[in-house]
Design a protein that fits this description.
Structural class: alpha+beta
CATH topology: Outer membrane efflux proteins (OEP)
Number of helices: 9
Strand content: 15-25%
Radius of gyration: 39 Å
Mean pLDDT: 86
Shape: elongated
Low-confidence stretches: 1-20
Number of strands: 7
Helix content: 55-70%
């Protein structure tokens, strides 16, 4: 690359780079960290994990006996005959206190299956939460780069307006001296109005992009968000192009959506075994203790002279259940097939995304290289035209053509720069490399 081109590229890259990070500025890492701590979807995913943990505890507790205590109070009245013509209404009060326990000895290994399924479901939910976090991270990355891009667009537009204002003053002086026509002056004035409109549009776009980033982070809309401008060097991204198949193999081993799909498939398979357990007999044991206390209006209160223990065995043998169990088994098998298809689809979508991302990197590199070459050529042509315009050797129309070419080339290069950075960060994301700039 020629020394002149290297200088021009350095000026372009460092045009909006801050010398140091202000304390109030938001880096990409700070934005991502804040969003992951405050985003509602991420917080809901955390609540879902706690629910799954509670379900797992409940499933494990099904292995233990249940114990219940009860108190039953009864009142009754009888009309006792005292004489032939009269009687007394006598009240009775009875209290029964009992403690009962029930324990499932065998139910076709349904409890074991439910315990295993609850553990699998918990792991799936945890990976779902990680998938949500990754989705938020990518959204923050995209919004953050959009703000950087919009701010550079605003600064470039302001610079163009300032230059055109200087050129308009020069055209006004030349018009007063009779060195140029009023038509040339009006051409420059029209160009200034157009560039001011472009600046207004760029400022509006920047405001909307800031709001998007603020909303993703769950910040108040009136937050004065100052985004830190890191040193972005696209040239360092042109030399390395990861292979799509290598990135895909890495992604299969680390991406949470793949792991979640595998656990969901395992949960569906366990559910088949759980519903099949209803084909088998179930055996349970029960035991209890009871004590009675009775009193009447005519006698003193008295307890039974002993506590009454009870022990029982219950065996339930399914014979005919209107095809209910068979239907449940068929549905569970179909859900397993769906889970397998879901897993295959997630793997397939992941492969397509990585292949598309790898191609985006290649295309972005080519676009940036051609954009850089176009910008350098347009800039050199603009410098020559600017000198000739100041000397009165060309008209404003010819000069503005060169300036318009420079503005277009600058916008194209700026867009290709951020497209290249984003596409490379996407591949880093799939490779398990932390998102940072």
């Amino acid at each position: 690359m020629k020394p002149m081109k290297i200088l021009l590229l350095a000026l372009l890259i460092n045009h909006t780079t801050a010398a140091a990070t202000p304390d109030s500025a938001w880096t990409l890492e700070k934005c991502i960290s804040y969003a992951l701590n405050n985003n509602i979807q991420v917080r809901k995913a955390g609540v879902t994990i706690h629910i799954s943990e509670a379900n797992a505890v409940q499933a494990r507790s099904s292995r233990y006996p249940s114990v219940n205590a009860g108190v039953n109070q009864n009142y009754s009245w009888n009309n006792q005959q005292v004489t032939i013509t009269s009687g007394n209404l006598v009240g009775y009060a009875g209290t029964n206190i009992s403690v009962n326990s029930n324990f499932v000895v065998f139910n076709g290994f349904k409890i074991n299956g439910q315990v295993k399924q609850s553990k699998v479901n918990l792991e799936a939910v945890k990976y779902d939460a990680e998938t949500t976090k990754e989705s938020i991270t990518l959204n923050i990355l995209n919004a953050y780069l959009q703000v950087l891009y919009a701010e550079e667009q605003v600064k470039n537009s302001r610079k163009q307006v300032e230059l055109t204002e200087q050129q308009l003053e020069l055209s006004s002086e030349r018009l007063n001296l009779g060195a140029s026509s009023r038509s040339d002056y009006l051409q420059v004035k029209s160009q200034l109005a157009s560039e001011k409109q472009t600046l207004a549009t760029a400022e509006s776009t920047l405001a909307m992009d800031r709001i998007t980033l603020i909303q993703l982070m769950e910040l108040p809309a009136d937050t004065a968000l100052i985004v830190y401008h890191p040193s972005l060097e696209p040239l360092s991204l042109l030399s390395y192009h990861p292979r799509a198949d290598s990135v895909y193999q890495l992604a299969l081993a680390i991406k949470p959506q793949v792991k979640s799909a595998a656990f969901n498939k395992e949960s569906a398979r366990l559910n088949v075994k759980i519903v099949k357990a209803d084909y088998y007999p179930s055996l349970s044991l029960s035991a209890g203790l009871g004590m009675n206390f009775a009193a009447s209006g005519q006698t003193q209160a008295s307890f039974d002279d002993q506590i009454n223990p009870t022990v029982g065995v219950s065996l339930n043998i399914p014979i005919y259940q209107n095809y209910k169990v068979k239907s449940n088994v068929n549905i569970a098998k179909l859900n397993t097939s769906n889970a397998e298809l879901d897993e295959a689809n997630i793997r397939n979508q992941l492969r397509k995304s990585i292949e598309q991302g790898a191609q985006d990197v290649v295309s972005s590199c080519r676009e940036y290289e051609s954009g850089l070459e176009q910008y350098n050529a347009a800039y050199e042509s603009y410098l020559v035209a600017d000198e000739k315009f100041r000397q009165g050797l060309i008209s404003s129309v010819d000069f503005l053509v060169q300036k318009t070419n420079l503005i277009v080339a600058e916008g194209t290069l700026l867009q290709s720069k951020y497209k290249l950075i984003f596409s490379r960060k996407i591949l880093d994301f799939y490779s398990g490399i932390p998102i940072t700039i």
